[in-house]
């Protein structure tokens, strides 16, 4: 295999004072943070779509990025060259995982049969490359949104032929994920939503989506896929209203249709903020409901209201994310997948490395800060003290379900003036800052 990223060395940890742009300043894969190494805690993954198919296109301009593998006129030659470059990238960066959509790795043919043949050939090639490499598949997924056949959705399309096609595509993508020992399979509802209720049977569409997921669960069992199935919430874009709006709506959907034992969620930071939540809120909501599966590590822009998928560099956000992940006992089968793209103006190959290094370092700082913060118990003590009234007296009775409105009225009628205590928000925020600065 020919070297593609010439002049880019294997990236090493050089420590916080290093000025070398091609070195980690905080991510030291073998350093132990508690019981686990940083590599084990963070489980970083590269997203094949943004990193190897992204071209810097926006609604106002054509491609600003041209990679070495774009020079192959035949789509299958290009697909092979792309995946070879990807494996060189994984090795140089030292990431343990990667993720892809079926269509990122192999081109569509003129029929579904031909498309499947292309996908099988590239899957075999990836399997071969994985044998000599230190990288595993975090998750696979199917692109059910790019082709015009999915203009009105896939599993929620008004056209049953589209539903069938989407099912066939997911069946194949699950087989490919299994063949590559993928640890999870993701469903992001690309165009599963609507633009206007004037032409939409929402009830049928949601029932169909649930039918689709039940079929996926059955098929995973049938082929012996033991990876975790994940749904990735997103509130809008591409459709105005996506059905998997946020973690809470995904949970309600899963419970309504009896799917809650089979799925967890893949939480993306930028999707959380698009939904009007913080990244921490979504992780926390998933954690307390036992469905925190995996993470798409990126960030949005505070001034832009769309899905900019930027590399995560905000230490406040990575610290609070790692705080939730540590409280979850880690990510288990999940990982931190960089579903992030370099800016249109960052068009060199070197930018791809520098962007991933920035993201990995930001999460390494977050991990270190969150670990110490958790060890100190500062936030836990404050929260415990705040809810202390539920540990005794009437509060204890409320918690134990041993009282009702009548007794509570009697209690309220006889109690004196209610005394609330300060929430001390600013003090707690400054504690978080202290731990970030000490990381
Ligand atoms: C798009 C989503 C997508 C999923 C995988 O906004 O983030 O990339 O992660 O289909
Ligand atoms: Ca994502
Ligand atoms: Ca996104």
| Sheet/helix structural class | alpha/beta
Distinct ligand kinds? D-xylose, calcium ion
Q: Which series of helices and strands comes N to C? A: EEEEHEHHEHHEHEEHEEHEHHEHEHHHHH
Reported for the largest beta sheet, the result is: 8 strands, parallel, barrel
Helical stretch tally: 16
Mean pLDDT: 98
Rg on CA atoms, Å: 24 Å
**Termini gap:** 40 Å
Helix content: 40-55%
Principal-axes geometry comes out as globular
Q: Report the β-strand fraction as a percent range.
A: 5-15%
Please provide the count of β strands: 14
Low-confidence stretches: none
Biggest sheet strand line-up: 5-6-7-8-10-12-13-14
Give the tags.
439 residues; alpha/beta; 8-stranded parallel barrel; two-stranded parallel ribbon; 16 helices; globular; binds D-xylose; binds calcium ion
């Amino acid at each position: 295999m020919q070297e593609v990223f010439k002049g880019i060395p294997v990236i090493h940890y050089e420590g916080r004072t290093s000025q070398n742009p091609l070195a980690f300043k905080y991510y030291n894969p073998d350093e132990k943070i508690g019981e686990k190494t940083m590599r084990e805690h963070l489980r970083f993954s590269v997203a094949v779509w943004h990193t190897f198919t992204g071209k810097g296109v926006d609604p106002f301009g054509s491609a600003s990025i041209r990679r070495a593998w774009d020079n192959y006129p035949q789509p299958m030659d290009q697909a092979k060259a792309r995946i070879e470059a990807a494996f060189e990238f994984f090795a140089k960066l030292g990431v343990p995982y990667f993720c892809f959509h079926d269509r990122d790795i192999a081109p569509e043919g003129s029929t579904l049969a031909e498309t499947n043949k292309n996908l099988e050939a590239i899957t075999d090639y990836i399997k071969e490359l994985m044998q000599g490499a230190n990288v595993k598949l975090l998750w696979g997924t199917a692109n059910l949104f790019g082709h015009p056949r999915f203009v009105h959705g896939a599993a929620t399309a008004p056209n049953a032929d589209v539903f069938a096609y989407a099912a066939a595509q997911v069946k194949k993508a699950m087989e490919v994920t299994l063949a590559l020992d993928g640890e999870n399979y993701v469903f992001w509802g690309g165009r599963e939503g609507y633009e206007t209720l004037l032409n939409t049977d929402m009830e049928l569409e949601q029932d169909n989506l649930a039918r689709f997921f039940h079929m996926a669960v059955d098929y995973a069992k049938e082929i012996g896929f033991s990876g975790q199935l994940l749904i990735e919430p997103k509130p809008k874009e591409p459709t105005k209203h996506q059905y998997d709006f946020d973690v809470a709506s995904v949970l309600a959907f899963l419970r309504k249709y009896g799917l809650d034992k089979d799925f967890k969620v893949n939480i993306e930071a930028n999707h959380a903020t698009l939904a009007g939540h913080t990244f921490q809120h979504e992780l926390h909501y998933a954690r307390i409901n036992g469905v925190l599966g995996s993470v798409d590590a990126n960030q949005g822009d505070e001034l832009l209201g769309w899905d900019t998928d930027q590399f995560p560099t905000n230490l406040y956000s990575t610290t609070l994310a790692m705080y939730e992940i540590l409280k979850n006992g880690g990510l288990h089968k999940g990982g931190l997948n960089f579903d992030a793209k370099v800016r249109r103006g960052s068009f060199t190959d070197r930018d791809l490395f520098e962007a991933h290094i920035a993201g990995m370092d930001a999460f390494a700082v977050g991990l270190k800060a969150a670990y110490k913060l958790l060890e100190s118990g500062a936030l836990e003590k404050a929260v415990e003290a705040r809810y202390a009234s539920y540990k005794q007296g009437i509060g204890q009775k409320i918690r134990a379900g041993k009282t009702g409105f009548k007794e509570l009225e009697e209690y309220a009628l006889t109690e004196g003036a209610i005394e609330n205590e300060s929430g001390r928000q600013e003090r707690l925020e400054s504690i978080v800052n202290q731990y970030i600065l000490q990381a």
